[in-house]
């Protein structure tokens, strides 16, 4: 996981955002497809970098909770209105008013995340308020031999 975060560090620094990483030293081996996991985190971080203002904060945290890994990517910044929370996972859907910096995008990032999370047998939740947005992904930790 730290390797996935690393490429974003320079961008975050350049955009004057603050990065906080909270990942346990010892992570259990994840039998789930590491490429999918990497892609999920990359897409969520990509969004956090895009939708956080300068001086804003991005937090990546990982928690192990019995048989699940909880991955959360949180950022300060723009609120995702409640009525948009399902639609942001649709292919090509973007909230135009949520992009004051005009980064643009394909609207595919979260659709991909959604598909990969279900492929891995997990779930994703989004929580957003006037000052922050958090994406929480829960994935099963498969035991050896599965
Ligand atoms: P791309 O995937 O090509 O980067 P995108 O960011 O527009 O494009 P998605 O990642 O699918 O596409 O996100 C869909 C929409 O959800 C975004 O256009 C944005 O409006 C909203 N969104 C996603 N992440 C955040 C976030 N962290 N904070 C605020 N809005 C967000």
Commentary on this structure:
In the N-terminal section; belongs to the phytochrome family. This is histidine kinase. It comes from Aerosakkonema funiforme FACHB-1375. Residues 1-143 form the Histidine kinase domain. The chain has 146 residues and is α+β, with helices and mostly antiparallel strands. It has three helices and five strands; from the N terminus they run αβαββαββ. It has helices at 2-14, 34-50, 109-119, and strands spanning 18-22, 57-65, 68-76, 123-128, 132-140. It has a five-stranded mixed beta sheet with strand order 1-2-3-5-4, covered by helices on one side. β1, α2 (34-50) and β2 form a beta-alpha-beta unit. α1 runs parallel beside α2. The longest helix is centred in the N-terminal third of the chain and has 17 residues, at 34-50. The protein is globular. Bound molecules: adenosine-5'-triphosphate. Adenosine-5'-triphosphate is lined by residues 46-48, 50-51, 75, 77-78, 80, 88, 94-95, 98, 105-111, 133.
Short descriptors:
5-stranded mixed beta sheet, histidine kinase, single chain, binds adenosine-5'-triphosphate, 146 residues, alpha+beta
Strand element count: 5
Q: What's the story with the biggest beta sheet?
A: 5 strands, mixed
Strand order of the largest sheet: 1-2-3-5-4
Shape: globular
Helical residues, percent: 25-40%
Radius of gyration equals: 15 Å
Ligands, deduplicated: adenosine-5'-triphosphate
Uncertain runs are none
